[in-house]
Amino acid sequence: MTTKSVTGPVDTWEMVLVHRVFRREFRLLPGLVRAVTPGDVARAEVIGSHLENLASALHHHHTAEDELLWPLLLSRARMQADLIHRMEAQHARLHEPLDRISVLLPRWRSAAPAADRDELADVIAQASVALDEHLADEEALILPLVSEHLTHDEWDALGKRGQEIIPKNRMALVFLGSLFEEATPAEKARFLAQLPAPIRLVWRLFGDGVYTNARDRVRAG
Predict the structure, then answer these.
(1) What integer best gives the mean pLDDT of the chain?
(2) Cys bridge to 154: 81, 107, 150, 193, which one at CB 3.0-4.6 A?
(3) Where do the domains of the chain lie?
(4) Is the CATH code 1.20.120.520 the one for domain 13-165?
């Protein structure tokens, strides 16, 4: 049975925006890791901390889908069960490089050896390819099903789960800036309009500077 809100179908634009950030960062990271000079622990810590935050955010994003999205779609879009199970399998395949990253990353951050650096970069590149495939399928095939079969409250519950990982300190501005780097002017305005007025004010006063400094610290060198 199809379930729709009386206000119309769910609009999934925010998830597409988040996907752009994951794609961008996983594409950039192999080159950033390979550029670290062996033994440069300070630089490895900067890149390693960024990678740890990104991998944790991706794991949280996928866990939310595993728990809140796939079961609903399986119960309501039964003709698409094979597709939904394919999405679940893609998540499982992504766990392999992400698990390997979790093993390599602490070793590399502690001493920045060349061998761990090179293997880590290769594994991130593998994760990037698998992630591109998964997100492309999700956007083209799954999000239309979401618009058809989920209520606004159900979609909002998924969004609220995703927000749990957003830090409550200055890193929240880094998170917003990372999104806005990928957003069109219209998307940025729409996203800001949904935020509480105090957060909009803090972003207007400090956001660009905080994000630019954090971004350049990671991408420099």
Answers:
(1) 93
(2) 150
(3) 13-165, 168-221
(4) yes
| Pair 98, 127: CB distance under 8 Å | yes
Residue 151, pLDDT above cutoff 90: yes
pLDDT digits 0-9 by tens, 28-53: 999 999 999 999 999 999 999 999 99
Residue with tokens 């979401």: 146
User: Token pair 């780097």 is at which residue?
Assistant: 181
Model-level pTM? 0.92
State residue 190 phi and psi, 5-degree precision: -65, -40
Q: Name the H helices within the chain.
A: 13-34, 41-64, 70-76, 81-111, 114-137, 143-149, 152-163, 171-182, 185-193, 197-202, 208-219
> Do 3 and 150 meet the contact criterion of CB atoms below 8 Å apart?
yes
